[in-house]
Design goal:
Shape: globular
Number of strands: 8
Structural class: alpha+beta
Oligomer: single chain
Amino acid sequence: MNYGIVIFPSKKLQDIANSYRKRYDPHYALIPPHLTLKNVFSADDEHIKDIAGKLSHIAKEHDPFMLKAYKVSSFQPVNNVIYFKVDPNPELQALHDAMHQREFMGDEPEYSFVPHITVAQKLSNDEHSDIYGSLSMLGIDHEETIDRFHLLYQLENGSWTVYETFRLGKENQ
């Protein structure tokens, strides 16, 4: 089964992202707006219990932190993805790094960590240019406290649902 680890922002930021995603993101119906901490990986039932235990430990070791989305950006020319850029603060980076340690699952991240919330993807070059031009004029200035992350699993229809939620900080356990 496929799994992933994400942060879901507040409803306010999700609503802003979804106002664009419903038109420009073919994954709109499959998963809410999110910040990916660990990309898709496969695990069987036994292995995922071990991973969930490790995630519980990681959550206890990291405190809640401020998430700041502050502009619209793009991964072009690598790919035509448009996203809300999230400030790569030390707390967020440490949480990401903890999920990519050899002790966790023994794998390295596929890409360098660029915290973001996707609002448009799988666009042609012309679509990307037009949409990025209009979205980049948006004033994104959003801050919120993040106090949890989620282990998700993928259903047969391609949609994602929460397997387990982990609250950050020792007092939340």
